[in-house]
């Protein structure tokens, strides 16, 4: 199937809620152009949890921000980001006015930013954060606060205690859950979560993962979960998209990507992340370092760190290879990768 045919088929796919095509984000700097998202194509399916995984600095957060056209100046976002309603109506996210974006970002697609510790105003109680959000979007305050209390309760917190508290009076896990509740108070369809468990201990991470599953089902959500921790997201996500050097290098069903990783980088990530299942002696760091966004090497961006790299990897940037019908990997040696230990 040609790329054009594939894109046309995707446009007719009723399960797609967001469609990304040829997405790029760059910053012009004194030493050159820093391209932090580079030519990404991605479909987000309605009611799924998509895990976006990669090392720090791989472009995950910029991809997340671009879904809401929220890349900060002087960043430039180009390409296509389309939101698709259930009746097929499409919204060009990058073409929205400031007023339209204000509503879209909370009421259609909402985001839980990285670091709940710094997401709340420290001199304002949690109740005021909710009230200001509702007022800014011209929502009925009483109805909105009742909805807030219900969501907070669903996240296993006491709503009165949380709403009357200041941020410093809540633990890290409580603040994270309060932030999730705030992101849901305007009843969005899509929730983008940027490293929501990064600053939490292992027990609280697992607790948040369980809660995310629960709220997804109750509130009929589609979730994009950004993380550097591949084992953490494996049991939660329906599909995985692995990012390296500002591009997607592998995507497919979560269990398939983990069990039959077809890109050497995905294999390296699985062996490098501390978890309770992998014996310590089998863990290995990912050798080398990720490329500078101003100076990404030609060919496959991973070839300088890859144990399977050959001359073709140094000169030809691989297009996606079909591992299965719904599993792709951008690797010239994907078949050899499947045989790796």
Return residue spans where pLDDT drops below 50 for at least 5 consecutive residues. 1-12
Provide the spatial order of strands within the biggest beta sheet: 6-7-8-3-9-10-12-11
Strand content: 15-25%
Give the termini separation: 32 Å
Structural class, from helix and strand content?
alpha/beta
Largest sheet: 8 strands, mixed
Topology:
Elements: H1 3-11, E1 16-29, E2 32-45, E3 49-53, H2 60-66, E4 76-84, E5 90-92, H3 98-108, E6 109-112, H4 126-136, H5 141-154, H6 159-164, H7 172-184, E7 190-194, H8 202-219, E8 222-227, H9 230-234, E9 239-244, E10 247-253, H10 254-259, H11 264-272, H12 311-315, E11 321-324, E12 327-329, H13 334-338
Parallel strand pairs: 3-8, 3-9, 6-7, 7-8
Antiparallel strand pairs: 1-2, 1-4, 4-5, 9-10, 10-12, 11-12
Helix pairs in contact: 4-5
Question: Keywords, please?
Answer:
alpha/beta; 4-stranded antiparallel sheet; disordered N terminus
Describe this structure in words.
The chain is of the alpha/beta class and 341 residues long. The protein has 13 helices and twelve strands. The strands form two sheets. An eight-stranded mixed sheet has the order 6-7-8-3-9-10-12-11, sandwiched between helices. Strands 2-1-4-5 form a four-stranded antiparallel sheet, covered by helices on one side. Helix 8 (202-219) links the parallel strand 7 and strand 8.
Give the structure's gist in a few sentences.
The protein is an alpha/beta fold and 341 residues long. The protein has helices spanning 3-11, 60-66, 98-108, 126-136, 141-154, 159-164, 172-184, 202-219, 230-234, 254-259, 264-272, 311-315, 334-338; strands at 16-29, 32-45, 49-53, 76-84, 90-92, 109-112, 190-194, 222-227, 239-244, 247-253, 321-324, 327-329.
